């Protein structure tokens, strides 16, 4: 049976065009392709944090998001899976990325399948995904897939942006993107569409109280 799956793709790139957005697009395309192979139709919700930068700061000051930012947060929390990609500055996620995560409800990503990606100048920063970004989403109790993708500037230099079946040793980025997309797709496909929990599900009925 064909089912609908929604992916929320968070990109924290600061420039336009952005290598961070490029990686986010490649990861979402790979995930969508794998989900379609598994028999699902896919909707992708793009959340470009650069467009919400001022609203994110306002939300940090007021305690709640409004307008387009509120709609973006709603799309994120209702998605079946999340792809989150940040540039790395000073060996960690960007301030914009962290500020966006800070305005989310602490339970909003609980058990949510999440694929992590990051971009940076050189591969020496790649471990920041594991010691900085992954613990952030683990704290939120997200279901973070084991495969994450870091793309350095040199990874884009050959122009290979998708896996074409040639020698992956020349540029392993397309292979890593495909592998990560497959891992997230499998996790999303296996996830039950339980919907939001009913806060009154365990409350006794009025008839039971009368008895």
Automatic annotation (TrEMBL):
Keywords: Flavoprotein, FMN, Oxidoreductase
Pfam families (alphabetical): FMN_red
Annotated NADPH-dependent FMN reductase-like domain residues: 7-155
Domain of life: Bacteria
Molecular function as annotated in GO: oxidoreductase activity
NCBIfam families noted in UniProt: LLM_duo_CE1759
Name assigned to this protein: FMN reductase
Originating species: Antribacter soli
Classification of source organism: Bacteria, Bacillati, Actinomycetota, Actinomycetes, Micrococcales
């Amino acid at each position: 049976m064909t089912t609908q799956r929604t992916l929320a793709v968070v990109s924290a790139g600061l420039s336009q065009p952005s290598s961070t957005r490029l990686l986010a697009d490649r990861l979402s395309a790979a995930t969508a392709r794998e989900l379609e192979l598994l028999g699902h139709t896919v909707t992708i919700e793009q959340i470009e944090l650069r467009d919400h930068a001022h609203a994110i700061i306002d939300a940090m000051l007021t305690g709640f998001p409004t307008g387009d930012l509120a709609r973006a947060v709603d799309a994120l929390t209702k998605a079946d899976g999340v792809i989150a990609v940040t540039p790395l500055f000073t060996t960690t996620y960007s301030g914009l990325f962290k500020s966006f995560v800070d305005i989310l409800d602490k339970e909003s990503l609980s058990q949510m399948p999440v694929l992590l990606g990051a971009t940076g100048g050189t591969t020496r920063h790649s471990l920041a995904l594991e010691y900085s970004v992954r613990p952030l989403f683990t704290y939120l109790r997200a279901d973070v897939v084991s495969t994450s993708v870091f793309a350095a500037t040199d990874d884009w230099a050959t122009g290979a942006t998708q896996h074409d079946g040639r020698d992956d040793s020349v540029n392993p980025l397309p292979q890593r993107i495909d592998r990560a997309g497959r891992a997230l797709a499998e996790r999303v496909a296996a996830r039950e569409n339980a919907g939001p929990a009913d806060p009154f599900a365990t409350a006794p009925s009025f008839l039971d109280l009368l008895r």
